[in-house]
Amino acid sequence: MGKKLREMTWDDYGISKHRYKELSAFCLQYGEKKSKINRGISGVNYGGLPKGTLKGDGLTLQAIRNVSYMSDCRIIEEAAVKANKLIASYILKSVTNDMSYEYIEYDERLGRIPVGKTDFYAYRRLFYHYLDILQCEKRQK
Known about the structure:
64% of the residues lie in helices and 3% in strands. With 141 residues, the chain is mainly alpha-helical. The chain has one domain (14-44, 54-140). The longest helix has 26 residues, at 58-83.
């Protein structure tokens, strides 16, 4: 019989301290990437003149960046849902804002989180496990 979810450790998921920090930093960029997507291509200041040595025009580069930002945000959201659909919004809030259980236990919009602290952190570790897998799959494409 395998371990219970709440007994799973970073080692069980094959996530080192440094990989965790990398995944955590990736999540902290979520809001920034979302806002850049929301500004979209209309936020590009492009006067039609070539700039620097980059290939392509500003609109093309911004469109490519937007696709990358959307993909990054999607895999963070997907990992949260895979970890636990019921508390995915709480996981997302925690990992993208570096907030502990105590700060998200009750949210005015979401209400009270339906799991205890130990279970929440178990699901959050599971989230990072899924995020690690999804990032690796993205790199292989």
